[in-house]
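Entry 12.
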Amino acid sequence: MKKGIYLLPNLFTSFNLFFGFFSIILSFNGLVVKAAYAIILASFFDLLDGRIARMTKTTSKFGLEYDSLADLVSFGLAPGVLTYIWVLKPFGRWGWLVAFLYVVCSALRLARFNIQVNTVEKKYFQGLPTPAAAGMVASTVILFDPLIINNVITNYTIFLFLMPVLALLMVSNFRYISAKQLSIEGRRPFHLLIILIFLCILIVAKYKIMLFSSFFFYSLMGPFSFLYLFYLKQKKDGFSIKNFRFQRDYISKSEEDI
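Predicted 3D structure (tokens):
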């Protein structure tokens, strides 16, 4: 610590933590939609702090630990509190236990990430990243809360299963593409610019649906990519019950390996 710390990336991490804490305060005051937007803002700053640290070559052990602690608040505790106050409270003990399951699995996901940061393939995450899980929760609140207010949705049981599913995806071995590999540097095909412009128009026109769809399909990417690679292995080796052990070393596999 005598050498000092890097201010810029840790400042963005602090903004991440601020919006996570702010989301909890908003949830306690019943402003669940605003609390959901606060989580989205926290994920935005979480994306920036790592990218800025890599661009400015200011990565550090302190920054890694601080980022994980901030993520636990913003993408673990804040979504758990938000969902409990939003729809889980009527379920009594089951409601807060389900919310706690999400929180503890996010903590386990972050702890596992910290000890594997130098050993796991950089192009992929092992398990659903906590910002993506929190984004799934936040986008669900943003999209469905108006339907609940207008009594279009009166049965909250479906939301009782959302948190355990996200919790299990976070601690699973399913592989998810890392945003670290996305780069806008260098030349790209012309049609890619057209696609991006079209996507921006869709996001502006139907931002609630697009936000929910983005997190929803990303959450499903892990299980579906596993099933696809499992299918390729079965096609190559023939069906065998022993191939179900394939999931254990799935994280290090790729389509070329299969």
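Annotation: The chain has eight helices and two strands. The radius of gyration is 20 Å.
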